[in-house]
Amino acid sequence: MHSIYKNYNMNDKWKNGNLYATALEFRLLRQHGYHVPQDVFNTIINKRGAFKPWLCEEVKGILCLYEASYFSIQGENILEEARDFTRNFLEEYLERTVDQNDFTMMINRAICI
Fold first, then answer.
1. Could you count the other beta carbons within 10 Å of the beta carbon of residue 105?
2. Is 51 left (phi over 0), alpha (psi -120 to 50) or beta?
3. Distance (Å, rounded) from C-alpha 59 to C-alpha 65?
4. What percentage of the chain's residues is helix, strand, coil (to nearest 5)?
5. Which candidate, 66, 47, 52, places its Cα nearest to that of 17?
């Protein structure tokens, strides 16, 4: 974890454009007590403060962002908004998805926690 954190600190762009990798590393680092600012998610927000439309194409990344949002610190509005946005998206995704598979079961588990 420490080497991932050191690498994060040396790279300004971090995982620019890869929601899954950004959210996963954010969650893992926070989970292990490292301070990672919510600003790593600035790349998924447009100038008006809304989430960018391409996020809806990355369901795996949205699930990871939803899980990462639970490691927010009070006052981190990006993560608070991300939790609402991703939960709504994932619930709608489950309603539209007919086939039950491992991924939909992962979403169900995450939402039920």
1. 10
2. beta
3. 10
4. 65, 0, 30
5. 52
Q: What is the pLDDT of residue 55?
A: 85
What number of other Cβ atoms are within 10 A of residue 6's Cβ? Answer: 11
Q: Which residue, among 20, 103, 108, 28, has the nearest Cα to 70 in the 3D structure?
A: 28
- Are the C-beta atoms of residues 29 and 5 closer than 8 Å to each other? yes
* Residues 48-92 pLDDT 10s: 988 888 888 899 999 999 999 999 999 999 999 999 999 999 999
The predicted model gives 35-58 an average pLDDT of 88
Q: How far apart are CA 90 and CA 113, in angstroms?
A: 14
**Could you give the CA distance from residue 94 to residue 108 in angstroms, rounded to a whole number?**
8
**In b/e form, how buried is each residue of 39-48, taking b as 16+ CB within 10 angstroms?**
ebbeebeeee
